[in-house]
């Protein structure tokens, strides 16, 4: 029985820092921009709600795509070992 080396690609700590810092910076600047808009408070609230729901759906979409990709890899290994 031959053993296969599995390579796990993990992001580097610097990449993780760049991803999280860009997310925090962009989200913060968007909230600050909405805060300084010269419009009524209900319009600002609507825009903030839209941003929060968009960010949440992006996280959910990314997780779903990753889960689908990982399940395809597992199914491929299952058929490969048969």
TrEMBL record:
TM ranges: 20-37, 43-62
A cellular component term, taken from the record's GO annotations: plasma membrane
Keywords: Membrane, Transmembrane, Transmembrane helix
Top-rank taxon: Bacteria
A Pfam short name: YiaAB
InterPro entries with a match to the protein in the record: YiaA-like, YiaAB
GO annotation, biological process: DNA damage response
Domain (YiaAB two helix) ranges: 15-67
Protein name stated in the entry: YiaA/YiaB family inner membrane protein
